Amino acid sequence: MTLSLEIAPRVARVSGKGQRWAEARTGGLLALPAALYFLVFWLVPFVSAVYLSFTSYDLAGTPEWTGLANYRRMLADPGFWNSAKVTAVYTVASVVPSIVLGLALAVPLSKPGRYNAFLRALIMIPAAMPLVASSMTWSVIFADKGLANTLIGLAGAEPKPWLTDEGLALWALVIMTTWKHLGLFVIILTAGLQGLPPAVFEAAALDGAGPVRIFSRITLPLLRRTLLFVLVIAVVGAMQSFVPAFLLTKGGPAGATEVLPLYLWATGFTFERMGYASAIAMVLLVAMLALSLAQFRVLRGGDDA
Amino acid sequence: MKVVLTLVVAVMLLPVYAMIAVSSASDANDLGGLTFDVSQLGAHVAQLFGQGGFPLYLRNSLVLALGVAVLEVILSGAAGYALAQLRFPGSRALFAVIVGTLSLSPIVVLVPMYLVVKALGWIDTFQGMIVPFMMSAFGVFLVRQFALALPRELLLSARVDGAGELRIFARIGVPLLRPALLTLFLLQFLAQWDSLLWPLIVANDPGLWPLPVGLSQLQTEYDFSIGLVSTAALITAVPPLALMFLLQRYYVAGLTLGGLRK
């Protein structure tokens, strides 16, 4: 009766076989669907994807082991290299501005106040809109007589074929993606900023540090964890992005917007080269993991923050 | 500062307004104009709902998004609670698999996942669209994090009082986990409402197409005016936006979770 609450659970756990059996039975029961699900829909597919990437398989018959043939073929495949390049450009060009702008907006918007809360709610609207609805909206905006050309017309520029010009189409996707993600990053960064200890900022202000110094020496280092999270979801999200390229440009013109997921999908499901598509998936996975790890390394700066 | 921020937000909302304006445009050429005509918007809505395709896509999307979200809450909720609060054989292995899966993207397992669904005979079925996404590593992980923080004294006293483990889960665990479960419901509903790639692969039958697939087809049909397509996009945007505003607290909590928690 006088057991402290700290050790009581442990005592209760070891108190009897009946209790342990009841726990195991209920735990097993509650977790069984999850065990089956992750086995059938993730573990088996993942192992199969690794295996298939070393085979040739077109859905008819059985997969035929071809060793490294898919990977060798990838090295010599201009379609793959084009997609890899498009994905790299798309990722860097959409992630950098959305994080920089996101941080620039989050710092003032994180200050308390009704009006700021109102603006934060509004800025979320693009992020909360379905990606499909956003993509269709932007396909109308980028149309010949759409809003984009009306606006640059007001500035005195000639209308541009945004989605059908090889040099412009990818940038149209970048603009749309930045617009779509900005609000999300603002909200995450705002929450991170609001979670920082105010005492540190008060002390710095008392010591006479200016806003720039406070931002670079205090805000940024303290916000590292949140920045890392935003960076990882932004990069991994951009590398997996399929819908905007599919809906706005179908990968065209001339492959200018053929991002890797689109190339993978076409390889597997239009041309039914399942083995080759799996090899592309493996390369994409390794690239995503490597980039995530590199970001952890860089932003952690060696310590265990 | 206030003016600059307001201006930035206004620019960000311009495309949303453009969508509404174009939905109400009668002339397909009038895309840059920002005038608004309620009666034309009404006509577009009536035309969309009068057609075979659109109401069907809407229904399919509701079935898909609600099906996945409800199953996710039940199954990930149960598994997350079990992994946090109960000891059972294989729990470590299961947790290891789930953590490993966190870094896997559907695009990586797209081909073999299709082969699994095909082997199950689920091509062109709702279960083929729903079951492969009815749980998520993120969901189990999120619930587990919440469940780890449940007050142990409360669960213990229920045990001392002789409540069965299942009863403790249902009567104490579930109510206390409600914020996590609501967050999960919302995030999964939104994710599935947007799902294009997977239905594109497993649903060849237009009768099963959810909105994203249906709309991507509408866009290319020649008899569809841009105003009508914009109206369809607008209607598609309403349920997620309404849900977000209703459950904003949870939405933001879910989005910011990964950045704030250890």
Automatic annotation (TrEMBL), chain A:
Pfam families linked to this entry? BPD_transp_1
Q: Does the keyword Transmembrane helix apply?
A: yes
Is this entry keyworded S-adenosyl-L-methionine?
Answer: no
Keywords on record: Cell membrane, Membrane, Transmembrane, Transmembrane helix, Transport
Please state where this protein is localized. Cell membrane
Query: Which PROSITE patterns does the UniProt record give?
Result: ABC_TM1
User: Mostly located where?
Assistant: membrane
Query: This chain belongs to which protein, by name?
Result: Carbohydrate ABC transporter permease
**Can you name the source organism?**
Nonomuraea helvata
From TrEMBL, chain B:
Q: Where is it mostly found?
A: membrane
| SUPFAM superfamilies in the record | MetI-like
List the PROSITE patterns: ABC_TM1
- Highest taxon of source: Bacteria
Q: Which CDD domains match?
A: TM_PBP2
ABC transmembrane type-1 domain span: 58-247
Transmembrane stretches, start-end: 62-84, 93-117, 129-147, 168-191, 224-247
Q: Where is the signal peptide?
A: 1-20
This protein's membrane topology, according to the annotation, is: Multi-pass membrane protein
Keywords of the record: Cell membrane, Membrane, Signal, Transmembrane, Transmembrane helix, Transport
Query: Where's it found, cell-wise?
Result: Cell membrane
Family note: Belongs to the binding-protein-dependent transport system permease family.
> Mind telling me what this protein is named?
Carbohydrate ABC transporter permease
This protein's species is: Nonomuraea helvata
